[in-house]
Amino acid sequence: MCIKPKIAFLGPKGTFTHEVASTLGDDLRAFCSVDVVMDSINNGCDFGVVPIENSTEGQVGTTLDALVQKNNVKIYGERVIPINQNLLSSKGTKKENIVDVYSHAQALAQCQAYVTKNNMNPHFTLSTAAAAKSVKKINNSGAIGTLKAAELYDLEIVDTNIQDLKNNETRFVILSREDHPITGNDKTSILFSLSDDKPGDLNGVLSIFAANEINLTKIESRPSKKGLGKYIFFVDFEGHRSDEMIKYILNIIKTKTSFIKILGSYPNTMI
Ligand SMILES: O=C(O)C(=O)Cc1ccccc1
Questions:
Q1: 51 C-beta closer than 6 A to ligand 1
Q2: Pure H helices in 212-263
Q3: Whose CA is nearest to atom 3 of ligand 1?
Q4: How far is 162 from 144, CA to CA, in rounded Å?
Q5: Nearest protein Cα to ligand 1, atom 1
Q6: pTM for the full predicted model
Q7: Closest alpha carbon to 192 in 209, 170, 210, 213
Q8: Three-class DSSP category at 57
Q9: Phi and psi dihedrals of 159, rounded to 5?
Q10: Residue-range domains of the chain with CATH
Q11: How far is the CA of 104 from the centre of ligand 1 (A)?
Q12: N or C end of the chain, less CB within 10 A?
């Protein structure tokens, strides 16, 4: 007997995350926030899918913050998909009558020029599909989201491809209890913080990658939430944590940081 993996995603049905999750299996479970998707992994689900960064708007802060907080979740994989945003509304609503527009913060940011040009008031929701689900009950309102959401929640597609940049992509991570075994074309994600504020501290960590010819694929920082000027750094680099060279590098980095978390190694889909 084959047991299907249970896949959690940022829902409800009709989000971009749902689109990614449905390529991984068909036992899908919707959760209303990134936090609860992560919690579900130690609570009945095998995998969880969440957005992590967008080519127009950058990091998804809620996901990075949750990766700092949650233990027992590892990055098992990544997927990148093109993102086309659409304006949805209840049947019969005309674009010029839409006053309030609802969506995920990232989607609103990706359509900033469009929202401003059309004099719409932006409102944040936890996902694009949460917005789509709610606009039916709100007069003169629209939601920014997927075409699938229009179908699921019986909405009119008022406008398509409304994102400011046509080339708009989001990277999602697939989370699990364990990361992925080595494949030979892998990437590793870590986060760390530095103890003091001394010249060259960050460079001390980054130069270890340079000296060992390890290519970095991403570097980000987030506030540590312990005061201004205190950061957590997120670094992705090529290689798998079970590789001898990467083990060696990670051991040196441990001596140069006050806190380090290896988020996981997984196949690199971006080259
Ligand atoms: O809200 C959604 O549909 C999500 O999956 C999060 C998101 C929002 C905007 C772009 C990509 C992903």
A1: yes
A2: 244-256
A3: 15
A4: 9
A5: 127
A6: 0.94
A7: 209
A8: coil
A9: -155, 150
A10: 7-82+169-176 (3.40.190.10), 86-159 (3.40.190.10), 187-265 (3.30.70.260)
A11: 6
A12: N
- Run of H or E residues at 121: strand 121-125
The 10 Å Cβ neighbour count of residue 143 is 34
Question: Which one-letter DSSP state was computed for residue 95?
Answer: G
Cis link prior to 12 (omega < 30° from 0)?
A: yes
Ligand 1 atom with the shortest distance to the CA of 103 = 1
Whole-angstrom Cα Rg for the chain: 20
CA 19 to chain centre: 13
* Helices (H), ranges, 8-137: 16-21, 34-40, 61-69, 105-110, 112-117, 128-135
**Pairing label, strands 259-267, 100-104:** unpaired
**Residues forming beta bridges with residue 170, ordered by sequence position:** 54, 81
> Which numbered atom of ligand 1 lies nearest the CA of 130?
1
Q: What is the ipTM of this complex?
A: 0.96
Overall residue count recorded for the chain in this entry: 271
